[in-house]
Amino acid sequence: MSLLLALLFVACASIGTPDGGPYDEEPPVLLKATPALNATGVQTAKITMEFDENVTLEKAYESVVVSPPQQQMPEIKYSGKKVTVELFDTLKPNTTYSIDFGNSIVDNNEGNPFENFAYVFSTGTEVDTFAVSGTVLNAENLEPIKGVVVGLHSCLDDSAFTKLPFERVSRTDSRGRFTIKGIAPGKYRVYALSDANQNFLFDQKSEAIAWLPTIVEPTAAPAVRPDTIWRDSTTIDTVRFVNYTRFMPDDLILRVFNESFVTQYLIKQTRDPHNKLTFFFAAPNEELPQLEGLGFDFTDAYVLEKNARMDTLVYWLKDSMLYRNDTLALKLTYKVVDDSGKVVDRHDTLSISSRRRWATVQEQQQKKYEDDVKAFMRKAKREAGYDENNPPAYIPKTKVLPLRFSGAASMDINNVCKFTFDEPLLSVDTSAITVSMVVDSVQIPMERILRQDTANIRSYELFAEWRPEQKYLVTADSAAFKGLYGGVSEKFSREISFKSLDEYAVLYVNIAGVGDNGILQLLDQRESIVKEQKTIDGHCSFYFIKPGKYFMRLIVDANGNGKWDTGEYEKGLQPESVYYYHHSLDLRALFEYTQDDWDITAPLNEQKPLEITKQKPDKERRKRNRNATRNFK
């Protein structure tokens, strides 16, 4: 027993591991570099750096940027206290080279980074020291873009971007920030490129791009910045001011976009059921494709349903003699862009078969009919007065057209009442549809309008003078709606009401300098559009807003087509401008808000609220200060 207690005591005493002492908080220190930092007349392509402790490289081939850009991937290795880089491209004469490590060199134990380190040398007699900095944003939503190549050309011709590799490059970090170093005095054009094939020039239409419309001329000037020394993680010890050289410009903004070029082709076609042909395209169609029947006349043989982009087209076949064929041969003609950039016609010959044979469909329909007859006769025999010699005749039921209605007992004022069907309608009897206001159980008839939805031919919107907190009765007689394939709607009745105005907020927005060509969007926390309105002299009014947190985005609709448009490099066309209000709006019911402090001239990289920015900055490494706070036991 005493032995067991002794072993238990030893085990309990050994639970804690020996304390390793204070944590290492210091970054690695560069002791030696071969060739030396900022060396001139360098002829070797292999660089060795030695530090005061063991180091590692984090995401070296993503973080390390060599400038001028290399056609062959450099070899970057680390071992113990050494980091080596070997360049395989032939060194250019009289050229400054920079190998920007960023924060990728860290100590092996605690991961403390050797921050913002760039190794620089020159093959000539002097080292070029100028630098330019800025931010790369998505032109459509001002999201910072990580990992995009930013490059310079001293050749100021527009063709340089498409024919010559960049002369000096950088890559954006998680904030979209970049710094191009080792620049010689002179004039440059600045570009951004999602370089899919890593050749440092724009030669694929799928690559996202940006360019500054103005020429950049790097400069430098003496400046002063504050340097904060912390006593611990929460207490400032000293704030001192440090002299440094400021390289400019350091506030460039590049708005990246993809050109609207998309290879057009037919993804697939389906036929399910027999009377429904659907075509799915890879991109929007500016013109409606043409269909021609092979061996039959397809003219006026269908009802066409199309979405707004015209990349999904549904042909509802009207003639039963046509859709009873298990296979239909068609010629489809649509517009594509050929290799030379010209818009030409493409012709596809299609043989489209239904998933089920028409004979099978008929067999199933016949079986259902026979089952209905048998059920009718069984019921008739159970009823009094049945005469075996004179049985009642079975009358097939009228085919029912299913109807869906969007109205509800408690509706949002912004919602629209809709009738929606599974197939196009042959006819609508508007006189058979009524709307009544219900007041103390009394039904008061109202004027109403029924209109086919422009976005969906199978939906019909119902409009009336709806009032908050008021009950209504919507009715439709049987056969008010008749479907393309013989079905008729059943009798319909639904009581609806609309919420009180007390449940909504109102927002007035004034934006200086916008005029009438703005599109103002009210966004939710997922950045989905809740409401959208064109500006009138820079003013917008939003009514019936549900309480909650919102954000605002403004599109300057330069061409007046009611949407954001991308750019095109060959035409020198920049994407349309987009701005964000700098913080969220917390809107409460029963309140009216006026927002007139929106300064769209503020730097674009400071406009979009972090709450809806999806590309978050990487977490910065901070001194742990664990030595001061650790509780030794």
What does this structure look like?
It is built from six helices and 43 strands. By secondary structure, it is mostly beta strands. The protein has four domains: 30-256, Immunoglobulin-like; 266-356, Immunoglobulin-like (Sandwich); 404-499, Immunoglobulin-like (Sandwich), CATH 2.60.40.3710; 503-602, Immunoglobulins (Immunoglobulin-like, Sandwich). Strands 37, 38, 40, 41 and 42 form a five-stranded antiparallel beta sheet that branches. Strands 1-2-6-5 form a four-stranded antiparallel beta sheet, with no helix packed on it. It has a four-stranded antiparallel beta sheet with strand order 12-11-14-15, with no helix packed on it.
First-to-last CA distance: 30 Å
CATH architecture of the largest domain: Sandwich
Task: Work out the number of β strands.
Answer: 43
- Assigned CATH class of the largest domain: Mainly Beta
Report the major sheet.
5 strands, antiparallel
Briefly note the structural class of the backbone. mainly beta
Helix content: under 10%
Separate helix tally = 6
CATH topological fold name of the largest domain = Immunoglobulin-like
Radius of gyration: 36 Å
Round the mean pLDDT to the nearest integer and report it.
89
Give the overall form: elongated
Flag low-confidence runs. 1-21, 622-633
Chain oligomer state: single chain
Strand residue content: 35-45%
The count of domains is: 4
